[in-house]
Write a structure and sequence with these properties.
Length: 289
C-alpha cells in the first residue's frame, strides 16, 4: 500500500498542475481575506461597521472558513475521480491487480494519496488563516476545529468518489456522479423537503440531514453562541452498545463533531464497497511434488 501512496503522490507532485492548484488555492484565500478586510475598513470609516478588532477578526475568519470549505468541496472529487477509473482508461489496472496486492491495499493506497494532497492544501492555507490573529477574537482551537471539519468533509467526499471510481470505468462519468453526490450531501439533503422531512430528529434535535451536511456543520461551528448539541442516544448506534453502555445515551456532542463522526462512517462504508467491487488476481498456490 505504501508503494502505491508514494507512486501516486510523486506523480501528482511532478506535473505542472500541482504548483498551479496550490498557487490558485492560496491566492484565492488571500484575495478573499484582503477584500474582506477592505470591506470592513470602508464600513468602519463611514460608521457602518463594527470598530472592534476582535469582531473584525471573527468576520474575516468566518469568510475564510466558508471559502476554504467551498474550495475543498469543489476540488476533492477531481483529486479522486481517476483513482481506479483512470487506471482502467490507461489499461494499467490489470497490471495493478497482477502485483498481488489485496483489494483493500489498492483502494487505501489510492485513497490516502488523494487525501495527502488535501492535507497539503490545508497546510498551505495556514499562513493565510494566521492573519486573523492580528485582529484577535479567534483562538488556535477555532482554526484547528475548522481545519478538522474541512479535512473530515474531504475524507467522506474522497471515499465516495473512490467508490464511484471503482464501480464505473470512465473518469468523466465518475466526476459527474461525484459532483452530484457532493451536491446532495452538502445542500440537497437539507433543502429538499422530502429528504429533510424523512430525516427529522426528535423534538429540538437537529435532523440527520443537518448532521451530514458540512454547510450546516460549519455554520454551527462558527456561531459558537447558538451551537446546538446533539444527544448521542438519537444516533443510529448498535443496540448492544446503548444497552451495555447506558452512559453513551447521556453524552451530548456539538453538531460539527457529530458531522465528523458521520464523515468517518461514510468513508468506512464507501471504501469497503470499493474494495468489494474490484477483484484482484490471486496467486495460484504451488503444489508440492
Amino acid at each position: 500500500m505504501l508503494a502505491i501512496v508514494l507512486k501516486e503522490f510523486k506523480s501528482r507532485m511532478r506535473g505542472w498542475r500541482t504548483p498551479v492548484v496550490l498557487t490558485l488555492y492560496v491566492g484565492v484565500l488571500a484575495l478573499v481575506a484582503y477584500l474582506q478586510a477592505q470591506s470592513i475598513s470602508e464600513r468602519a470609516q463611514f460608521a457602518f461597521g463594527n470598530n472592534n478588532p476582535a469582531a473584525q477578526g471573527e468576520e474575516i475568519f468566518s469568510t475564510l472558513a466558508g471559502f476554504q470549505l467551498a474550495l475543498l468541496i469543489f476540488l476533492t472529487p477531481a483529486f479522486s475521480a481517476g483513482s481506479i477509473a483512470g487506471e482502467r482508461e490507461r489499461q494499467t489496472f490489470d497490471l495493478l491487480l497482477c502485483t498481488g496486492l489485496s483489494a483493500r491495499a489498492i483502494i487505501l493506497g489510492k485513497y490516502v494519496a488523494a487525501l495527502a494532497f488535501v492535507l497539503l492544501l490545508l497546510w498551505a492555507s495556514l499562513p493565510v488563516f494566521s492573519l486573523v490573529f492580528l485582529f484577535g477574537g479567534v483562538t488556535v482551537m477555532n482554526v484547528v476545529s475548522v481545519m478538522l471539519l474541512c479535512f473530515a468533509t474531504s475524507v467522506a467526499i474522497s471515499a465516495l468518489t473512490v467508490m464511484l471510481s471503482a464501480i464505473f470505468h470512465r473518469v468523466q462519468i465518475v466526476t459527474a456522479l461525484a459532483y452530484g453526490v457532493v451536491f446532495v450531501q452538502t445542500v440537497g439533503i437539507v433543502i429538499v423537503p422530502g429528504v429533510t422531512g424523512a430525516l427529522v430528529g426528535n423534538g429540538s434535535q437537529p435532523s440527520i440531514g443537518m448532521m451530514i451536511s458540512p454547510v450546516t456543520a460549519l455554520i454551527t461551528l462558527l456561531s459558537a453562541q447558538n451551537t446546538p448539541y446533539v444527544s448521542v442516544g438519537i444516533l443510529p448506534l448498535p443496540t448492544y452498545l446503548v444497552r451495555n453502555l447506558p452512559l453513551v445515551s447521556q453524552v451530548h456532542l456539538m453538531l460539527w463533531q457529530v458531522h465528523v463522526l458521520f464523515d468517518v462512517l461514510i468513508a468506512f462504508v464507501a471504501l469497503g464497497i470499493a474494495a468489494a467491487v474490484i477483484r484482484p488476481i490471486r496467486r495460484i498456490p504451488r503444489f508440492r511434488r
